[in-house]
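Incident review: delayed structure delivery

Summary: a single-chain prediction request sat in the queue longer than the usual turnaround. Root cause was a stuck worker, restarted by the on-call engineer. No data loss occurred. The affected request and its eventual output are reproduced below so the record is complete for anyone auditing the incident later.

Affected input:
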Amino acid sequence: MATIILVIIYLAFISLGIPDPLLGSAWPAMQPDLNASFGFAGILSMVIAGGTIVSSLASGTLIGRIGTGRITLISCCMTAGALLGFSVAPSTIWLILLAIPLGLGGGAIDASLNHYVAENYKAHHMNWLHCFWGVGATIGPIIISFFISQHHSWRSGYSAVSIIQFSLAVILLVTLPLWKKAAASRGDASHEDAAAAEDVQSTVEGNTVRLFQIKGVKPTLIAFLFYCGVEATVGLWGASYLVGERGITAEKAAGWISLYYGGITAGRFITGFFAMKIHNRILIRWGQVIAIVGGLLLLLPVTGIYLAGLILIGLGLAPIYPGLIHETPARFGRENSAKLIGFQMATAYTGITILPPLFGVIAGQTSIVIFPFIVVAFLVIMLASVEEVNSLLKPQQRNSSQ
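Output delivered after worker restart:
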């Protein structure tokens, strides 16, 4: 039964990943069709991410009240309905309204399933969980690219993704009793869920200041802010850069963004094996260096090189997010890890909310040519933040490795 639920969770994370890169991949085709401004994609991205922040912070209370299975089912229906609405939206106003349930649904699935896997499965399953998100994020641009090239319609691409989401909702509905049986077999599930809700509430009520005073917490949160900020910025604006600055067609640009997410996916799969022999801190550091090299390659005029840079950025980003989360108990204490991971996820979504729209505003006022410069700047700030944490916590890290 636990294996079946794990398979369902992996499928859910694939479906969670598929919509994430759709907007960026489809925007070069959506913008003229909707007569929207260049930077409007940033506004949509901000609304989606804002909904994700709200639902992820509320997930602890929701888990205690209705359970992980029901949250996942309801959230999947919300995202499926929102994506279907995107496919028929007559104007940008409708897209903004539909972005709200899309973000709320995605955030609830993300936070609740991360919590469930952390509580009920071994650590290596968390690495594969984020790998399966990458599988979905790789598939999304492929779907959009296919429908733009073969049917000249980004709307059909959104419809296809909506059908995938509704199919998962059916699977979740049929298998919903398994979640109840699994909870009953654990016996203490209701207690754990209640504790999770209480934990979130206590964080809000009084422990926030103390947590922020722990050495290394603030630069860690900055690292999460810029990690998800750069990941989302490349995913949202990468295709527009390739079309606007490099002269690549919209369907080919979507295909290359798919390879970028493919780099994240493959990197996380490979990192799972390396992590058996190499410490997380080393994997994180080398990942950041590889991503920066990829960003610098975007500046070069040779087609094959700057396209390879996108893939290198994806490969470099792969070990950073799961590695930083996995390091949280060792760095800041197990008694603080649950609360801090919640803050880390909220900060990461804040990066998604703020940084891609900020780039859209800057690029709209200047030129899309600044894309690689901004990407490299975000990566360097992230590297500096992580290395500051390593420096501050060097004694603890040395002891933990012995």
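Verification: Confidence is low (pLDDT under 50) at residues 188-206, 398-402.
Action items: add queue-age alerting; document worker restart procedure.
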